[in-house]
Amino acid sequence: AQSVTQPDIHITVSEGASLELRCNYSYGATPYLFWYVQSPGQGLQLLLKYFSGDTLVQGIKGFEAEFKRSQSSFNLRKPSVHWSDAAEYFCAVRSNFGNEKLTFGTGTRLTIIP
Amino acid sequence: GAGVSQSPRYKVAKRGQDVALRCDPISGHVSLFWYQQALGQGPEFLTYFQNEAQLDKSGLPSDRFFAERPEGSVSTLKIQRTQQEDSAVYLCASSPLGSGGRNYNEQFFGPGTRLTVL
Question: What angle do CA B103, B108, B109 make, to 5 degrees?
Answer without folding.
Answer: 135
